[in-house]
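User: Hello! I'm new to structural biology and keep hearing that structure can be predicted from sequence alone. Could you demonstrate with Integral membrane bound transporter domain-containing protein? Please show me the input and the output so I can see what each looks like.

Assistant: Of course. The first part below is the input, the amino acid sequence of Integral membrane bound transporter domain-containing protein. The second part is the output, the predicted structure written as tokens.
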Amino acid sequence: MTARRIALALVLVAPAVGLLLSPWRPDGTLVYLGMLPAGLGLLVDRRAALTASLLTPASMLAATALRDLPLGAALFMLVLGAAVGLSAAVGWHGIGSLVGPLAAFALLGTPLVALPSGTVSAVSSPAAVATMTGLVAFGGLWTTFVGGVLARNVRGTGPRPVPRPASAYFGLTLGILAGLITYTVDDWTDARNRWWLLLTVFVMIQPYFTGTLRRAGSRVVDVLAGTVLAAVVAHTLDELPVVLVLVALALTGCAVRALLRSPFWVVPLFLTPAVVLLTSGGEDVLVAANVEHAVFIVAASLATVPILVMGRHIMAVKAPNTS
């Protein structure tokens, strides 16, 4: 990597790193989360990254308005899941696999923001919601324009477009699952990490049936390994929060490298503990989060298979020889 690229990379991560290492760490987490969909969008092109940087905060903003409306929340996630599936026709479903979970984070999770008055829930007031939305938007836009220079030579490495019948099957399956899971968990549990169920669904389900089944198996293994890694890191570095943040950022860098050079199953192995470390707090909270996370991932994986089988018979979509 040239000195210019190294300098650009440092500029790219500077806002998130600066906030994560400061008393405003929750704000740094939101900037970091906003960077992820836009960064994946850059693997398609800058237009996709810009769309992701705007769609992500807009989806999170809409989700906050539906937190107390279970049916409305379920319909919102159903429509969002269907839209992600249909976007596979132009190869944008990779972006959606991150936009969807972040909307679920705002809808079912416990995002925090650091305000002058202190750290509060991101949905506790209009000012907190506006701050959350602005920080996520900043992360996406910053990545689009600064990261766009870094990604000039890696465009076109994102997911390939799929035929419209396959994208319709994908949208039907993803929309139904996202809606059903949202409605169920909203009534079934108030666990702070219940949004990981939707993260699993958006990451695991693929446009083709065989690809999803393969990813379902690898996803369970990946997440169990990732949660163990997060627990070990949290236990080792519980009294060194700065080092813990740096480890999470290093894991994110490994996930990006794996996305470019390795099979997809390697990516969650790094990204899972990174996101867990940055969206949870303290060793005790992290251990509980990891247990919930593992249970939710396995549950979502098991729930996905029968719906996929039914969807495959309904849509009669055949996968090509490649996943």
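User: So the tokens describe the shape?

Assistant: Right, they're a compact way of writing down the 3D structure. Reading them back into a model, for example: The mean pLDDT is 79.
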